[in-house]
Design brief:
Elements: H1 2-14, E1 23-24, H2 25-31, H3 36-46, E2 51-52, H4 56-67
Parallel strand pairs: 1-2
Length: about 80
């Protein structure tokens, strides 16, 4: 778990500027869970990103990705 978290932090530190990043209400909600200090760091990283609206087509696509095992089942509520 710690190695995965380190890899994620490293990506945010070195690669995020190569992409146009967006977030959503679902991501904000998930990022705010857990350890308050860690949640604050995650929310800070997401602050200022444009917000995406979750529409039915996104839900359909995410379910198809889960069925194809491209996403973990926890990714969609």
């Amino acid at each position: 778990m710690a190695a995965w978290q380190k890899k994620t932090v490293d990506w945010w530190d070195t690669q995020r500027n190569r992409f146009d990043l967006y977030t959503s209400d679902v991501t904000i909600e998930e990022a705010g869970r857990g350890n308050p200090e860690a949640a604050a760091r995650r929310l800070e990283a997401l602050s200022g990103m444009p917000m995406l609206t979750i529409i039915e087509a996104v839900v359909v696509l995410s379910k198809a990705l889960i069925q194809g095992r491209a996403l973990a089942s926890q990714s969609v509520r």
